[in-house]
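Priority: medium. Attachment 1 of 2:
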């Protein structure tokens, strides 16, 4: 996954370079700067002393010393003064300067903290949004694995009140429906027509109506599944007419949208090697997050997304937080994988991409 978000301590991340949110002296400080210097040992400070400081928005590179990382890239973020002093442009410049320096040193993997989001007072959510967008843009033209390392749990789901409300409603509905699910497991003669009227006196909402209808659909599926057997001749024909595979639908949709392969897998937050593997295997079975990544990159509608997932053997479920959040964004016409990953990350869900 070219851009991944992880929780933890950046000094523990094993990658080619970690980025330090330093101050212009480059002679250490508190926060992540202090943590990196402590973990790297005195050699780091000694080398920093030779660098002659660093301007805000610029970046300089040193060895990693006792850190697992080979290099430390020191950048100086803007101090927040309310947003009218060019802070956003300077913060973007920090990420770009660091990524450019990493590429110049043939780094395949880089880890960033949230620059300026601590002592320098940059509003965390906006600092994270700028980090994600700037890194994603850089990755459109570069092959690199980038980690955004989130150290504290501040922010979180508070930034997504409507998703919190929706998840609460779904979980409450599922809790209400639980007894019905048990009775739905009973043989039909034992059910007391529970699904023929709103259950438990609850107000018949669109969701309970859906639920009340569901067992009928389940029964239908049950009968269809166990009642209809294909005679051998049409079984052979059915196998001959096997449906379009996941890969075939993916490649067809890329063509229909006039996209290049690279545009598609970059938008999907999927690395080039994996895409090549999928392209070369017409019956490749992707992970669910990979299938969803491509559905978003292709900006498929919800029905088309479900069709693509079905071809990989998956479905979107109304009782799974990840699926509910993805469905929330697709149904609102929001397909930006990196933006949706920020929400999934806030709810401690798997991220989209591979
Ligand atoms: N790993 C990852 N992230 C960390 C770690 C860590 N070990 N420690 C802190 N952070 C996070 C903070 O939670 C924050 O989100 O790094 C982000 C940046 O916070 P600061 O370290 O305070 O950096 P910044 O806001 O850019 O201020 C820089 O603070 O430490 C001094 O010398 C530094 O003067 C400079 C100023």
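Attachment 2 of 2:
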């Amino acid at each position: 996954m070219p851009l991944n978000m992880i929780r933890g301590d950046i000094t523990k991340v094993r990658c080619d370079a970690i980025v330090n949110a330093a101050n212009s002296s480059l002679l250490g400080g508190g926060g992540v700067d202090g943590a990196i210097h402590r973990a790297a040992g005195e050699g780091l400070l000694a080398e920093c002393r030779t660098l002659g400081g660093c301007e805000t928005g610029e970046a300089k590179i040193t060895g990693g010393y006792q850190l697992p990382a080979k290099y430390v890239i020191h950048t100086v973020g803007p101090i927040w003064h309310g947003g009218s002093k060019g802070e956003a442009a300077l913060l973007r410049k920090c990420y770009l300067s660091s990524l450019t320096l990493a590429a110049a040193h043939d780094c395949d993997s880089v880890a960033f903290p949230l620059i300026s989001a601590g002592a320098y007072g940059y509003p965390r959510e906006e600092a994270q949004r700028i980090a994600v967008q700037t890194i994603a843009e850089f990755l459109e033209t570069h092959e690199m694995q980038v980690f955004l390392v989130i150290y504290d749990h501040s922010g979180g789901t508070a930034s997504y009140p409507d998703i919190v409300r929706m998840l609460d409603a779904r979980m409450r509905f599922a809790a209400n429906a639980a007894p019905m699910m048990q009775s739905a497991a009973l043989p039909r003669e034992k059910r007391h027509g529970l699904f023929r009227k709103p259950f438990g006196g609850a107000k018949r909402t669109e969701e309970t109506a859906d639920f009340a209808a569901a067992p009928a659909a389940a029964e239908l599926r049950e009968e269809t599944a166990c009642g209809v057997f294909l005679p051998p001749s049409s079984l052979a024909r059915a196998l001959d007419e096997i449906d379009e595979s996941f890969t075939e639908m993916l490649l067809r949709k890329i063509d229909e949208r006039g996209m290049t392969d690279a545009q598609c897998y970059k938008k999907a937050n999927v690395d080039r090697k994996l895409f090549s593997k999928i392209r070369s295997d017409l019956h490749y079975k992707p992970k669910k997050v990979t299938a969803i990544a491509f559905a978003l990159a292709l900006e498929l509608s919800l029905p088309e997304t479900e069709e693509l997932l079905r071809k990989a053997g998956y479905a979107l479920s109304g009782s799974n937080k990840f699926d509910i959040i993805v469905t929330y964004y697709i149904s609102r016409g929001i397909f930006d994988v990196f933006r949706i990953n920020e929400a999934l990350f806030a709810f401690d869900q798997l991220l989209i991409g591979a």
